[in-house]
Amino acid sequence: MAAPSVAADTVLRVRETPLVLMYHAVAEVTEDPYHLAVPPERFARQMATLHRLGLRGVGVGDLLDAMAAGQARGLVGLTFDDGYAELPRHALPVLRRYRFGGTVFVVTERLGGSNDWDTGPVWPLLDADGIHRLAAEGIEIGSHGATHVPLAGLHPARLRDELLSSRDRLADLLGAPPPGFAYPYGSVDAAAREAVRHAGYRYACAVTVPRKALSPLTLPRSYAGARDGAARLTAKWALNRVRIAVKGGTL
Predict the structure, then answer these.
(1) Is residue 117 within 8 Å of residue 159, measured between CB atoms?
(2) Going by C-beta distance under 8 Å and a sequence separation of 6 or more, which residues neighbour residue 90?
(3) What is this structure's pTM?
(4) What is the pLDDT of residues 76-88, one digit of tens each?
(5) N or C: where does the chain have the smaller number of CB atoms within 10 Å of the terminal CB?
């Protein structure tokens, strides 16, 4: 029997909303105008900080299961957007060292390609083999859309295609539909949230979310980057619910 989980339409209270960190690339890069890459040594120190605080990094699906069972104390969600190719090389050994998990959200029409949705440096993305390697190590794989377009205000037909085609591609690749989704650019409105629910995703990660809209389909996350040393990371953990209470856009 599957473990109980938090239902997608559950309304979350601020005090129930866990810390979920939002990473992108873990790699050494020469140019990073959007501050998306964390050098491997810095990432290792960040995970060591979480471990030293008595925290354990997990994937979002496991986090929701733990919340439903009343066992989420001390857990932090670790997410990695876009699916950069260096994750198995640089992030996976560190996660394995501390017995941490995580969720990697991939852009399904760019597998084996590059992050061509933005101007700036070109970074390679995971291919099917890389995704299989992560999944074999217990890393949860989720969808980040088919092409990484903002979903808020998107035409309904294009919105459905972004959600369903990416879900189906990952189901074919991994043998089961992905449990979760991450909104590209954090772009979400009520129509996008409903489309995610109808597409069958169990949860979806956003960035900033107003208190009245907190739910497993709009989970807020806290950006994690190269400047996050031990003190900043500790503060993000300690002040997570304060941040959620005072920030958030419209939905």
Answers:
(1) no
(2) 26, 27, 40, 43
(3) 0.94
(4) 999 999 999 999 9
(5) N
